[in-house]
Design brief:
The chain contains three helices and four strands, in the order αββββαα. The protein is α+β, with helices and mostly antiparallel strands. It has a four-stranded antiparallel sheet with strand order 1-2-3-4. Helix 1 crosses helix 3.
């Protein structure tokens, strides 16, 4: 795992579970940590997120990592 990926997963661990609204279709709405009026749509099946980090870098973002963690796909670092 690269240092940037590690940092993303550490930031994902900081997202509160109640800021994530998961649906049965492997999609979720995740509240932005920097702007409470903004949410990002995560689709784990399509491996996508509407946040700038994912759109511009085409990599797993902290929102995707948090959602994957909440459904048991993998563990995140401890806060």
């Amino acid at each position: 795992m690269s240092a940037k990926e590690s940092t993303r997963f550490e930031r994902a661990a900081q997202i509160e579970a109640n800021d994530v609204d998961l649906t049965a279709q492997m999609t979720a709405e995740v509240q932005s940590q920097s702007d409470p009026d903004k949410t990002y749509t995560v689709d784990l099946e399509a491996k996508s997120c509407t946040c700038p980090d994912h759109r511009y870098r085409n990599t797993t973002c902290k929102h995707m990592a948090k959602c994957a963690n909440l459904i048991g796909m993998f563990d995140l670092p401890e806060n």
